[in-house]
Design goal:
Layout lengths: L6 E4 L2 E2 L15 E5 L2 E6 L1 H5 L7 E4 L4 E4 L1 E6 L1 H10 L1 E2 L6 H14 L6 E6 L11 H5 L7 E5 L4 E4 L1 H7 L11 E5 L5 E7 L1 H6 L7 H17 L2 E6 L4 H12 L6 E7 L6 H14 L5 E9 L28 H13 L3 E6 L2 H18 L7 E4 L8 H7 L2 E4 L8 H16 L5 H6 L4 E3 L10 H10 L20 H8 L1 H6 L17 E4 L16 E6 L2 E5 L4
Parallel strand pairs: 1-5, 2-6, 7-14, 8-9, 9-10, 14-15, 15-16, 16-17, 17-18, 18-19, 19-20
Antiparallel strand pairs: 1-3, 3-4, 6-21, 10-11, 11-13, 12-13, 21-22, 22-23
Helix pairs in contact: 2-7, 7-8, 10-11, 15-16
The structure holds zinc ion (ZN).
Length: 547
């Protein structure tokens, strides 16, 4: 044997997730790794032949071995900083609790010029209780901007509005608005792109703050078996920070990026900017390959766009890009060989996105574009076959398929009975042969992959059993399809399945060993799965104590 491996993993139940592999049996026992890459996959006997005295031997002790997990829709940089450096409101259930958290944060951070917060629940809290005065009372005379967990709603105080110039007579920003009092002055609550309007004056994080937060969360993600992410909204400064983190040796996730395109800005300069970003950032660790479009908002605040008006009040929202602009912008980015990554919540936004992609294909011819629609909260059944036909990928946050009493009442009344049957229809999309990914959309909700995976399989809460309530059971998926959505399909969606996403010779040794075999346990235990060892390019980035 001429080739000597740096590392070998033996005695594993290796599910390679390569084309043709199935859920029923592991495909291999062992892996040989040299210089970041996998050089052989086989049984213990075959692979030990690659070992020499210098080779590190990792005994998987019969545990499940999978390709490293990839989260293909996540706000990694922003949420790392938001959760690391601001008041965190995810747990607050009452206004008093929210205010207490902000007050404590404000007192602990006397030097911060602005008070920032994140994570209030937009179903529990509305413009009724989130007034600017309530926030004035806990921020010690400083301006404050607090964002909801969905990042589509916000809350600011009097001084923040003053600094941003939001007054009685000021106009509403494009694709957003401020809740107003009768006299026209801002009330406190902020909708959609009005948040960007406030962000112009609220200081963002310093690069050092972003880097510090990301170093922390890279490790936390490796602990969960994650080796790759797709940052769902990265401006140029984020790419620069990812690159700096990589040069420092602290980036232990492969990062692909998509960058937001604005409807009120001219096409050509935005296209030029993305082309230049793509040229500058193109490594297997940090790169940009995609243009992000928001076609609508979210259901909870009434900004989702539907094919037919809402069932509760007969209203509808508007698309954030007109149909002609969608086809113009989509065609232009598609022509320059960018992936399109489209935020679509309502079935009207889904259809408009599919129409736009179809128009781009008519204009430019089809290519291996792998355009993807993210969220897909409700899809008209007649549009489902179009995913396969157009080669469009579907990116689901399956944690959100869990039953949630208050939210379900709101959504089901808004949609009516018939449409409510088509909530997050991942099962039907897989049945109709569409390529589907599972992802977190963190900080909107947790990044824990095995909670997200279990939710997609059961469509029940994590503490459920076989008799518990199920949300639209017809769209459940198999364990194997869920794992595909975090491995090979995720790599496909991030345009890196040539080098990651499965355990195959020639690919990077991004590999995770897990404490339990998710294919052979109760589906209700999947969320308890822990990583024992995570390798990125053959390098250990996490090892559990005792393993
Ligand atoms: Zn997102």
């Amino acid at each position: 044997m001429t080739i000597v491996a740096d590392k070998i993993i033996i005695n594993g139940r290796v599910h390679t997730m390569a084309a043709g592999s199935t859920a029923s049996a592991p495909c291999a026992q062992a892996i040989a790794i040299k210089d970041e890459k996998i050089i052989a996959v086989g049984d213990d006997q075959q692979i030990t032949q690659y070992a020499h005295t210098s080779t590190q031997i990792i005994d998987a002790k019969g545990h499940l071995v999978l390709p490293g997990l990839q989260d293909t829709h996540i706000h990694f940089q922003l949420s790392s900083a938001d959760i690391y450096h601001s008041a965190v409101l995810y747990e607050a259930e009452t206004l008093a609790q929210a205010l207490a958290i902000i007050k404590e944060f404000s007192e602990k951070n006397p030097l911060k010029k602005w008070i920032r917060g994140v994570g209030f629940d937009p179903v529990l809290f509305t413009e009724k209780e989130l007034t600017k005065e309530a926030l004035d009372g806990v921020t010690a005379g400083r301006p404050a901007l607090i964002l909801a967990s969905d990042y589509h709603n916000g809350w600011a105080n009097s001084l923040a509005f003053e600094l941003a110039g939001v007054k009685v007579e000021s106009r509403e920003p494009e694709n957003g608005r401020f809740a107003r009092l009768n006299d026209g002055s801002p009330k406190g609550f902020i909708y959609e792109d009005a948040i960007w309007y406030m962000n112009r004056v609220a200081p963002s994080y310093t690069d050092d703050e972003l880097l510090e937060a990301m170093s922390h969360y890279c490790h936390e993600f490796n602990k969960q078996g994650i080796t790759g992410v797709l940052d769902a909204m990265a401006p140029r400064s984020y790419l620069k920070n990812y690159s700096t983190l990589h040069k420092r040796g602290d980036l232990s996730l492969r990062v692909r990026c998509t960058s937001k395109i604005f409807s009120h800005q001219a096409l050509q300069p935005q296209l030029d900017e993305l082309i230049s970003m793509r040229e500058e950032y193109n490594s297997d660790m940090v790169s940009l390959h995609s243009a992000k479009f928001f076609l609508d908002g979210v259901m909870e605040n009434g900004t989702a766009y539907f094919i037919n008006p809402r069932s509760d009040n007969g209203e509808n929202s508007e698309l954030m890009f007109s149909p002609s602009k969608i086809s113009e912008y989509f065609s232009a980015f598609d022509k320059e060989k960018f992936q399109l990554h489209v935020h679509t919540i309502g079935d009207g936004a889904v259809r408009a996105a599919l129409d736009g992609i179809e128009a781009a294909q008519l204009n430019n011819g089809s290519w291996d574009s792998r355009h993807q629609l993210a969220h897909l909260q409700v899809v008209d059944p007649t549009d489902i076959p179009r995913f396969k036909q157009l080669g469009v990928l579907a990116n689901f946050q399956t944690l959100w398929t869990q039953p949630d009493k208050e939210n379900d009442i709101l959504i089901n009344t808004m949609l009516g009975k018939k449409r409510s049957q088509w909530l997050y229809p991942i099962g039907e999309l897989i049945k109709q042969d569409a390529t589907c990914m599972l992802s977190s959309d963190w900080g909107v909700s947790t990044y824990e992959p095995f909670s997200i995976i279990q939710s997609g399989i059961t469509r029940q809460t994590l503490d459920a059993n076989v008799n518990s309530e199920v949300n639209t059971a017809q769209h459940r998926i198999s364990v194997f399809d869920a794992i595909k959505g975090y491995t090979i399909n995720a790599a496909h969606a991030a345009w890196r399945d040539d080098v990651t996403g499965s355990i195959e010779v020639g690919k990077y040794a991004d590999v995770v060993i897990l404490n339990q075999d998710v294919f052979n346990i109760s589906v209700y235990d999947i969320h308890k799965t822990q990583a024992l060892l995570t390798l990125l390019g053959g390098k250990q980035v996490y090892r559990a104590q005792g393993f």
